Amino acid sequence: MQMLAERKLKEEIQRLAPFHHKVELPYGLNTYVPQEARRPVEYTRLSNLVRYAFPPLISACGGSLAGKRVLDVACNCGGFSVEAAKRGAEFVLGFDVVDHYIEQANFIRRALNLEQVEFKLMDLEQIDASSVGEFDITLCLGILYHLENPISSMKRLSAVTRYAMLVDTDLEFTSLKRRLLCGRFAQRPLWLMNVARGSTSDSKSATTSLWRRDDVAQFRPNDAAVIELLKFLGFQKVVRLKPELKGLEKRYYTGARGTFLAIRT
Prior knowledge:
This protein is of the alpha/beta class. The protein has one domain (6-170, 222-263): Vaccinia Virus protein VP39 (Rossmann fold). 35% of the residues lie in helices and 21% in strands. The chain has 10 helices and 9 strands. The protein has helices at 6-16, 41-60, 79-86, 99-112, 129-132, 150-159, 176-182, 206-209, 223-232, 250-254, and strands at 69-73, 91-96, 117-121, 135-141, 161-170, 191-196, 216-221, 237-240, 257-263. α6 (150-159) links the parallel β4 (135-141) and β5. The protein is globular.
């Protein structure tokens, strides 16, 4: 691939903004456009999770992603796919159902000349070994709590995952008040149903919610539900990562968000 000229990069960044991931590009540029940004998380999302979750994932893979095939689920503009490629992954496939996010991702791919990365406009229900092959690692970052059928969807992803799955998700029943109200039930594997309203390009959450063209039912798990689900899928070792780093988003420290590393042993 031929590297894009600086002027063209600037034009495309402005045209495609806002991006959900702040990705560093050539000529000292990046995809974060302050005047177009919708939420502060767009500045921190990529760097925070890479600092926090990638080191234990890479350690579990023997210290490197070299030679690994990586699947990036609901990849958005592709920031995590890019980071996996930078760390030596042999091939990375990112997919999403929103054509605008895939357009953003392909722009970033061209800007960084990442030939080992591919982005596809694809629904999770289309994922199987015959359509995409198998992967050593699946990144399931920010999608689990949006799924209408979380068990069957995660089964589909597990079926193409040979070794490790990294899951980052909103969590329910995290506050002391809720735990007290729900008693022992809050400690059991539970899912809370939520109906999320449709989204448009004018929505505050447009960098992540354009897939919601209509109202959707979705289910937010507690931490026990995530752990039991991953074990049910055949990952014998499942750990919830501890948010010990400074500077992460507040939701990781309060427990409203959690990251889980699942390994087949």
